[in-house]
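[Discussion] Sanity-checking designs against the backbone

I'm trying to build intuition for which residues belong where. Below is a structure token string of 688 positions. I'd appreciate it if someone posts a full sequence so I can compare it with mine line by line.
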């Protein structure tokens, strides 16, 4: 159920015309119309290449182009045509060409264009769409990720024919003999992600390829959130390292991803490099001489929120060592420095996601860039380009020196794009929580905050449960959309949250309903004491996924001394209602089996211990339920069951149902409806 954050790279946008008005609060419509910038890359001369998506103000759809910002300053120049929409930019080895994906031909294919200018050249014309790619070091070969029927092997036309035949069937039934039957938001149809290798650079686009690792069966990249960071070329272009969870009957309850070494020409057998570790191994990066493989690894099988430890493997001997064993953080992606001595990575830390430099020899770690959450980054010739966001800036691009000094903005912030909007100020606070832990949270003031006035509160509870409402920007649960309605926002990183050390993260497993509830209760009390202008009598609690579980749990387990409910209303988005049912209806079984210590039949008491369904008799707080029909992580029956219980008990309640959304609400107009419905619910119960 943990949402890897990750998080949607919707990139963005040419600024919409703005008209001067009196200052006002931030609204979902402002959020969806903002420019979004992503994929920063440094060119050989120090210029900045980036993706910029322009949004149509009426449809809220958009188109992404690549732009080049000169190192010497001046106006950026568009690199890709205005009527194309592109993604996944990569620079050539010599820095003079940019590669990218586009659906201009009717399906997603690989293109290139000189940075100096010119028309794009189509490099692939595959019968199926290209989902991702990784160029070989000499740019003469490319590894292409495509969704195919495994039985078709390298015959892509076979996949096209089988898909067509399936669509023409007169029957609709599907017979399954193993899991996954469905995953995230898609029913299994027999196709899997595969990586093909083909040569590029000829006069005509490449149309065929040879599949690698034909003797290893499993999705490459893994579904639903894997990407091509799990594939790396060797420096000589002869081999690839790929992270994969083999296709076995155990995959729905296994987190045993291994890194395989395969020959790019399809010859020989794949070699499992990490077979000894039965937990997750991923993110391979070769040393410049090809003799060492860097990657990250978990230690505990079955636990998807274990620490990502940076590792180094000598490929000749197979010896493995952990690079920074004393650094209690979990890395996200690895990039090797030009001199081969440093690994760059982001990692959650104390409510933010800084960029770090890890010395490979000593394991010493240095924080380079902080103050928010760093996303994509690029390091070249003593410079860093990176995307960073905060609770009030949106996604913004920056350049800096390699040591993190001299940070300079290279794109506008959200505030600069929406000139008449005032964001709520924010600050981090701390208190003593469960077991004497120091627990952190964030407070966001209403946009129109004034000294001496009291304000109602939106109490946001994050999902995961191994997650965080950190100093970061979100296009789904954005605290500024509540501050923009005149509410204060309180967010607590209760025990189980990430970025505060692995022991703190581990503390929630087996304790969904007691330890985090204690932190939330103490955090709510601490916030009201520290910020006396918070109106504790006008507050609503809102959460999604595990946060939705917690609102369901709060409804039956958190009451004031006089028996009254602490919140005037609740909002439960795709939340777990019945933990026992959840243990068999969700698709990634490793999650519930780790969190509750076993299967439903082995540990029934563990599933029932903190089951919200057991406490519906005490529910009395008005509750808005939201559910998506395509959510297979916390399936729709959980939301319907909660709403049915509320209705049957006569508790004031509403159910907002999306037939075309998954665990998240992603479609722009649906997002507007979601926010309008939630805001109306809050206004009904706590004013503003």
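Best answer:
Here's mine. Compare freely.
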């Amino acid at each position: 159920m943990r949402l890897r954050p990750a998080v949607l790279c919707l990139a963005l946008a040419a600024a919409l015309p703005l008209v001067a008005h009196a200052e006002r609060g931030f609204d979902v419509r402002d959020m969806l119309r903002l420019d979004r910038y992503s994929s920063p890359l440094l060119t050989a001369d120090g210029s900045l290449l980036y993706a910029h998506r322009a949004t149509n103000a009426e449809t809220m759809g958009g188109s992404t182009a690549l732009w080049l910002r000169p190192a010497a300053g001046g106006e950026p120049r568009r690199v890709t045509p205005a009527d194309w929409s592109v993604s996944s930019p990569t620079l050539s080895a010599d820095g003079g060409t940019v590669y990218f994906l586009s659906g201009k031909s009717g399906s997603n294919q690989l293109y290139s264009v000189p940075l100096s200018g010119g028309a794009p050249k189509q490099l692939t014309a595959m019968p199926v769409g290209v989902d991702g790619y990784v160029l070989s070091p000499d740019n003469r070969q490319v590894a292409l990720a495509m969704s195919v029927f495994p039985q078709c092997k390298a015959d892509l036309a076979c996949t096209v024919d089988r898909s067509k035949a399936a669509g023409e069937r007169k029957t609709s039934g599907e017979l399954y003999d193993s899991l996954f039957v469905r995953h995230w938001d898609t029913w299994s149809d027999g196709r899997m992600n595969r990586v093909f290798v083909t040569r590029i650079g000829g006069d005509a686009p490449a149309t065929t390829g040879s599949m690698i690792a034909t003797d290893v069966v499993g999705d490459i990249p893994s579904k639903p959130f894997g990407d091509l960071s799990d594939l790396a070329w060797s420096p000589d272009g002869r081999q690839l390292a790929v992270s994969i969870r083999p296709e076995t009957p155990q995959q729905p309850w296994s987190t045993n991803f291994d890194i395989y070494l395969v020959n790019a020409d399809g010859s020989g057998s794949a070699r499992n490099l990490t077979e000894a570790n039965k937990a997750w191994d991923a993110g391979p990066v070769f040393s410049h001489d090809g003799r060492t493989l860097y990657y990250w690894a978990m230690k505990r099988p079955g636990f998807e929120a274990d620490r990502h430890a940076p590792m180094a493997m000598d490929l000749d001997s197979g010896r493995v060592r952990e690079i920074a064993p004393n650094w209690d953080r979990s890395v996200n992606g690895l990039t090797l420095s030009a001199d081969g001595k440093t690994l760059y990575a982001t990692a959650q830390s104390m409510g933010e996601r800084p960029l770090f430099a890890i010395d490979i020899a000593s394991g010493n770690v240095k924080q380079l860039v902080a103050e928010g959450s760093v996303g994509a980054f690029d390091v070249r010739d003593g410079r860093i380009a990176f995307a960073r966001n905060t609770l009030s800036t949106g996604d913004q691009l920056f350049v800096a020196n390699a040591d993190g000094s001299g940070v300079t903005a290279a794109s506008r912030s959200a505030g600069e794009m929406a000139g008449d909007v005032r964001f709520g100020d924010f600050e981090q606070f701390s208190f003593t929580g469960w077991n004497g832990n120091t627990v952190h949270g964030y407070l966001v003031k209403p946009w129109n905050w004034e000294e001496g006035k009291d304000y109602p509160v939106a109490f946001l509870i994050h999902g995961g449960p191994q997650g965080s409402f950190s100093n970061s920007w979100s296009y789904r649960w954005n605290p500024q959309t509540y501050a923009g309605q005149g509410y204060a926002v309180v967010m607590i990183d209760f025990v189980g949250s990430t970025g505060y050390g692995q022991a703190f993260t581990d503390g929630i497993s087996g304790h969904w309903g007691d330890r985090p509830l204690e932190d939330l209760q103490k955090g709510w009390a601490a916030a009201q004491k520290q910020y006396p202008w918070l109106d504790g009598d006008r507050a609503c609690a809102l959460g999604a996924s595990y946060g939705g579980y917690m609102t369901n749990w709060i409804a039956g387990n958190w009451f004031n001394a006089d028996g009254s409910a602490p919140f005037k209303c609740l909002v439960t988005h795709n939340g777990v209602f019945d933990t026992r049912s959840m243990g068999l209806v969700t698709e990634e079984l490793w999650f519930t089996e780790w969190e509750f210590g076993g299967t439903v039949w082995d540990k029934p008491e563990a599933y029932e211990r903190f089951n919200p369904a057991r406490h519906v008799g005490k529910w009395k707080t008005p509750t808005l339920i939201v559910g998506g029909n395509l959510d297979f992580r916390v399936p729709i029956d959980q939301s319907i069951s909660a709403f049915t219980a509320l209705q049957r008990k006569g508790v004031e309640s509403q159910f907002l149902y999306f037939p075309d959304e998954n665990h998240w609400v992603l479609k722009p107009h649906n997002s507007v409806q979601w926010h309008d419905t939630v805001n109306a619910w809050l206004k009904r119960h706590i004013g503003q």
